Amino acid sequence: MMTPDAKTARIPAPGAAKIDAGSIALPFRTEVREQVNRLRDAGIDPPLLVGLLANSDPSAKKYAEWTGRACMADGIRYELRTVDDPIDVESALRDANDDPRVHGIIVYYPIFGQVESYSGESQDDYLRDTVSHRCDVEGLCHEYRSNLYRNIRYVDHPSNAKKCVLPCTALSVVKILESMPTCYDKSRPIGRHMEGRTVTIINRSEVVGRPLAAMLANDGADVYSIDIDSIYLFRGGKLHKAEGETPESCVRKSNVVVTGVPTKNYRLPSEWIQPHTTVVNVASFKNVNEDEILQIEGVQYVPMVGKVTVAMLERNLMRLFYNFHHPDRQFEDRLRVAASQVPQPAPWYGSVVQLYTALAATAILGMMLTRSK
C-alpha cells in the first residue's frame, strides 16, 4: 500500500506537466486523412508507403507495427517487405526506388549498425543515401540532409514550388515544441521563431540529434549539441566548438532539453534542469527520472515522441506524393522535360566566328560608303 508521503511525492510541482504527444499528433493525422479523402474523391489511389525490415531489433519491429496501424487508420496504403538477409536490403531498396507504384520508402534501422562500408562511413549511412529523394519519407538521404544544413527549404530552386522533406523524428520534436508557446514564438519572422531560446540536445546522431540541432538553429535558437567526447554550439547558421562548456553547464542554461541516448543506463541528473524547462525524451529508454523532474516548477515533460513521428512520416509521404507522384505533377514534369528537349532553331549566323565576320564586314562596308560620299 502506498504511504501518504509517497503519494505526496508524486504530485507535480506547480505548473509542471507530463505532455501526451498523441494530442499533438492528432491534427496532423486529421490533415492527412482529409488529403487522402480528396484524392479518393478525385479517383486517385492513396500513396503507397513501403517499409523494409531486415532485423530483429524490437524497437524497429515496434516502429514498423505503429507505422502499419497508423497508415491503415488514415487511409494510406502500406506494404511491409521483410528481407531475410541484410545483404539483400540494397537490392530490395533499389527495386522499391524503381517501382512506379511506390511513393514512399522507410527502412527500419539499425540493419548493419556501425559496420564499416566501402561506400561510406557505415553501411546504414550508405543505405540512407541510396533511398531516392522522390521516395525518402524519413528525409535522411544526402540531398535532404545537405539542404537542411544549408537552410535550403525547397528542392526546385528557383521555382520554389516543392518543399524539402525533413527528418521525421527531428521534425516531430519541432512540432512538439511549436505547440508550446514558451518555446516557439510564431509572431516572429521565419527563422526567428526560437530567437532568445537555448536548447541542449544530448546525443548527436545522424537520425535525430544532428538534424534537430540544425533545424532549431535555423529557427533562431542557440543549440548545444552534446556527444560522448564533444560539445558544439549551433548559432546563426554556424557551428562553433563550445570551449569550456560541460553537459551540466549547457543543461542549466537551457530552456529546452532533448535527450536521445539509446541506453537504459543513462540518466540525466534532475538537479541540472531549471524551472520552466521543456524536456523531451526521444530515446526508446527513459533518459530522465520522471518523478524527480515533475517536482521542478513549470517543467513540461514529453516522455515519448513516437506518435508525432508517425504523423510526420505520413505528412512527409503526402508531401512527396504532391511533389513528385501526383498525376497532375507528373503531367507538368513531362511537359517541362518535353519543352526542354524541343530542338531550338539554329541561329542565322551559324557560329560565333561567322557572326563576328559578318559584323566586321558590315562595319567595313559602312566605312567605305561613308568615305565615298
Automatic annotation (TrEMBL):
Leader sequence segment: none
A Pfam entry, by short name: THF_DHG_CYH
Domain Tetrahydrofolate dehydrogenase/cyclohydrolase catalytic: 19-116
InterPro entries: Aminoacid_DH-like_N_sf, NAD(P)-bd_dom_sf, THF_DH/CycHdrlase_cat_dom, THF_DH/CycHdrlase_NAD-bd_dom
Domain annotation Tetrahydrofolate dehydrogenase/cyclohydrolase NAD(P)-binding: ranges: 167-319
Top-level taxon: Eukaryota
Name of this protein: Methylenetetrahydrofolate dehydrogenase
Organism: Stephanodiscus triporus
